[in-house]
Amino acid sequence: MNPKKTLREREMELRAMLLTPAGLAKLHELAASYAEAGERVLHERGSLITYILVHERTNGLIVV
């Protein structure tokens, strides 16, 4: 099992994904899967990274 990442580590990982078209597509896919899971809706002007971090932190996937 992989150790949980810190909030800072995960944020930096997600920010790096923004730099490529494939990474951005992956962020959109991840956000969509979280929305389908019944989590909060990503607002049109909302941050993908913040949305993903909130979901992962709420579900214990990352540590503070």
Structure in words:
There is one protein chain. Helices cover 59% and strands 6% of the residues. It has three helices and two strands, in the order E-H-H-H-E. It has a two-stranded parallel ribbon. The longest helix has 16 residues. The chain is globular.
The count of domains is 1
Mean of residue pLDDT values: 88
- The helix/strand order is EHHHE
**Strand order across the largest sheet:** 1-2
Helical/strand content category:
mainly alpha
Helix content: 55-70%
Q: What is the overall silhouette?
A: globular
Largest β-sheet summary: 2 strands, parallel
Counting DSSP E segments of at least 2 residues, the number of strands comes to 2
> Low-confidence parts lasting 5 or more residues at pLDDT below 50?
none
**Global Rg:** 11 Å
Give a nutshell description of this structure.
This protein is mostly helical and 64 residues long.
Name a few traits of the molecule.
single chain, 64 residues, mainly alpha, two-stranded parallel ribbon, 2 strands, 6% strand, globular
